[in-house]
Specification:
The complex is a heterotrimer of chains A (about 30), B (about 110) and C (about 90).
Chain A lengths: L1 H13 L4 E2 L1 H7 L4
Helix pairs in contact in A: 1-2
Chain B lengths: L6 H10 L10 E3 L21 E3 L22 H16 L7 H6 L5 H4 L1
Chain C lengths: L1 H26 L2 E2 L1 H28 L7 H7 L4 H15 L1
Helix pairs in contact in C: 1-2, 2-3, 3-4
The chains are: A mainly alpha (about 30), B mainly alpha (about 110), C mainly alpha (about 90).
Amino acid sequence: VVEAAVRGVQQAQAEDLDIVDVDQLEKVLPQL
Amino acid sequence: KDGFLSEEEFNLWKRLYRLGDGDQVKGVVLPEPHFPSLQEDAMPKEPTAGIRQLSLSEWRLWQDHPLPTHQVDHSDRCHHFISVMQMIEEMRQEEDECSYERKIKPFLRMEDVR
Amino acid sequence: QFSHRQRLKAAVHYAVGRLCSEVALDKQVQFNKQTVAAIAEVTFRQCENFAKDLEMFARHAKRSTVTTEDVKLLARRSNSLLKYITEKNEEIAQ
């Protein structure tokens, strides 16, 4: 769970966002 | 016979399949798995010239429904993944209130959590 | 049977929400509810995979009880995860 959350945060930060939306999670999910 | 290519097969391979200097893409590699939550700050390696790093998320738009199979069905994990991607697709339009939460919350018992 | 599964799902969803809040606090980035729900669903389904694998590992070793050795096998594909799980296991064993 923490891994998914941290990767979601990294993706959001990469997109200059301060909230993790499903769009960000969707990008990290396949590799997770 | 010994598990290696015969001379003839080797030449065929070299001619038809081998990625070489003459090719724009000289090789492919899967992304390195690393776990940031385990404080594993992997140095993002500079992609070496000509080596294409494959992306596991580039085609996610296709990954919200099972694609046709031939003789081997999709695995459980694949079906799980597809259904979560479908779920994400359905939730994408939701503003604040979460449909998943609304359906599941009535079943919450704190003793189950402890 | 249905409500038992739904109760488990609700408990997982609650726990995932708590964990995401901790990460949000630590990283100063928020999670919207849909993201928490998606992580919860991934987690719940992953637990299903784990349960099947653990059962198979135990049966393969001719045991009727799942042990921490089986759990380590779950983490076998990643060195760092295996190392983390092994250390955690030793901590618990003490």
